[in-house]
Structures are given as structure tokens and as C-alpha cells.
Amino acid sequence: MAQIICKNLSLGYDSNVIVKNLNFTVNSGDYLCIVGENGSGKSTLMRTLLSLQKSLFGELEFSDGLKPNEIGYLPQQTFVQRDFPASVFEIVLSGLCSKKGFKPFYSKEDKALALKNMKKMEIENLKNRCYRELSGGQQQRVLLARALCATSKALLLDEPVSGLDPMLTNQMYELIYNLNKKEKITIIMISHDIESALKYSTHILHIGKEIFFGTKQEYLNSNIVDGFLSNSKGGAQ
User: Fold this and answer.
1) Ranges 17-21, 26-30, 98-102, 199-203: which has the least confidence
2) Domain extents in the chain
3) Under 8 Å between Cβ of 168 and 136
4) Global confidence as pTM
5) Average pLDDT over every residue of 109-137
6) Crossing angle of helices 136-149 and 166-181, rounded to 10°
């Protein structure tokens, strides 16, 4: 069943249109990868899906009981975020803020959920560690556990393996894949890693000079993918 429906969506700032006429649907349990050239509007679309920015034109609908504040978000990390002086448990708990509104304290149920998601990410032993003392791979697991505290339905991930070495990259992809397959969580992921996108995704949204939305196999059969793969391998991205 459809969770997110985009109809004739145009995105940008003020009168500057970055991308227009986006049409796609995300169903419960999908694994959608958003790919395309730098500056094509991928991050702008992500902010729009998170209700952090309004579209210039078109319709964005949430359905199947999904609300904007029930979408877990894993952003790209900045240097400042990596150096954040808080414990792992505090970081993970903060993922509940969008649900709690103005309630200032965490309940036993909140803390149990945070611990449950830490266990899923295999970081429960890091509970009392300072976040900024962790490795990059450990920090990403912490942020993914945090995102899971906000949702049991859909995750939006912005370059979740950025800066990780090949072994940690594969581990992160497997964690995300298992959340999709075993936990039945819808995944929407921005990625420059086209090969992994094609390995794990069920659907592809390509944004650029041409726009494509369809299944992974339909994308592989399209004319768009050949040139994009060639540019990716040549380091154009």
C-alpha cells in the first residue's frame, strides 16, 4: 500500500526551480534509491519529504497511516556532529523527540525502545560511551538506532556509508537491508554508490537531465542507466 505519493512535484528555492514534474510512489516495504548527478535536487527532495521545505508546485501525500513526524532520518554527518559531546544512549534517545512533543522526560518505555534499537545495531555495549570517541562506523550505527526510535515504518537515509571503509560500508548496507527485509521498514536512500543501489534496492528514482522512476529491473533496461554508470565509473560523481 502506498505510503508516499508525489504528483507533478517541482522543487527549488524562491523562483529557482531545481527539478520539476517528479512523479513517484513509495509503497510499504519498498527499498527506493534516489540517484543522479550532483546538484540535481536529491537532497532538496529529501528535505521536502521530511517537511523541512515546501515544494514549489505539485502534491505530496502521506498515506497508509504514515505521518511526516514518523519518518526516521539519517543525515550526512558534518564534522561538528561527529564531535558532539553526548553519550551514545542520549543520542539514541533523542530520536524520540519528534514523537514526544513538549514532554521533557523519557519514560521507561522510551528507554526500553532505545535499548532495543541499540541491540538491533549491535551497539548496546557502547551505551555509556561518549559519541565523539567512537569510530565512524560506530557513529553511523548510533545514528541509525536513533532514526529507528522515530519510526517503525519508514527511514530516509542520506549517503549512509559516506566516509566508511569498504568493510564497514558492506556492514552498514547489510544492516539497512535487514531492516527492510526482516523489520519490513520502508527505505528511501540517497546514494552516489550506484552499484550498491542496484544490488539492494527494489526501485530507483533517477533525477537529472532525465527523470526515471521504476523498478530496479526497469532501470537496468532503460537508456538512462548506461550513461550514468559510465560517468560513475569515470569518477564524474
Assistant:
1) 98-102
2) 1-66, 71-182
3) yes
4) 0.90
5) 94
6) 20
